[in-house]
């Protein structure tokens, strides 16, 4: 682990945990953090020993959004195009599951980041605020895409217009997270969940992510065709043979070790 970095990286049992590390600033995202996180995600994506990526943060917050001490007279379009947009695209296109492990408040672009994971796990004390309107900005970093798809246009608009804080029980009810764990055991619960995911067939999950991402903006006809194409790819992979053999032999499938041919 690199101790001085604003993004810590540690890999254990196939799980690469990336930790935002500006706890005194509630992990507010400056350029160093956004670009560093994007680079760490790309490295994890290219590392065959990594099967699952966990994105979490140090201290009492997940991410308080854009570091407001760095907001100046610059061009916000260019800033978003060069920083947050590639970050969110990297998460969505990474060929392995990304878990956002939301340990505390997620505000502004931090809320978008929290929503961007394939799996969203929350600590009981975590919360989410679409806080942009408090400083008279519009939702960015994907919030305008993620949130209405989860809660519908009207609830999304209300949460954005009033910048209401969503607590963990409410987030679970609204479908903003898959599971809520006690604060005291959160890290261990996240690691256990991630290891369970890491034991699943990595190639099939990569294709599953691809087909789901594409289906989000596809017609039914396009989705059916894409499924048919990717099923042929999945069916030709050793993981499929292993899954079928394990079923026939009445044993658990081993997707971690490719059988010798
Ligand atoms: O150009 C572009 O790309 C624009 C992009 C914009 C994307 C966005 O994310 S816009 C939204 C930006 N974020 C915010 O507006 C949130 C600002 N923070 C807050 O409203 C509050 O801090 C929280 C509601 C998140 C938490 O409140 P609380 O009371 O628990 O903590 P606090 O006391 O306000 O904050 C603790 C420290 O963190 C404090 O520093 P200090 O005084 O102890 O030295 C505070 O200034 C710092 N901090 C919190 N958020 C930010 C921040 N510092 C810089 N930027 C922040 N976003």
Protein described:
There is one protein chain. The longest helix has 16 residues, at 31-46. Helix content is 46%, strand content 16%. The chain has two domains: 2-198, 2-enoyl-CoA Hydratase, Chain A, domain 1; 202-248, Lyase 2-enoyl-coa Hydratase, Chain  A, domain 2 (Orthogonal Bundle), CATH 1.10.12.10. The chain has eleven helices and ten strands. By secondary structure, the protein is α/β, with parallel strands linked by helices. A hairpin with a 2-residue loop joins strand 1 and strand 2. A six-stranded mixed sheet has the order 1-2-3-5-7-10, with helices on both faces. It has a four-stranded mixed sheet with strand order 4-6-8-9. The radius of gyration is 19 Å and the shape is globular. The site of ligand T3D has 23 residues, from helix 2 and strand 6.
Any chance you could write out the topology, listing elements then pairs?
Layout: E1 7-12, E2 15-20, H1 31-46, E3 52-57, E4 61-63, H2 76-82, H3 84-93, E5 98-102, E6 105-107, H4 109-115, E7 119-123, E8 127-129, H5 143-151, H6 153-162, E9 165-167, H7 168-174, E10 179-181, H8 186-198, H9 202-215, H10 220-235, H11 238-248
Parallel strand pairs: 2-3, 3-5, 4-6, 5-7, 6-8, 7-10
Antiparallel strand pairs: 1-2, 8-9
This protein binds ligand T3D.
Ligand T3D is lined by residues 25-26, 28, 64-69, 71, 76, 79-80, 105, 107-109, 131-132, 134-135, 137, 140.
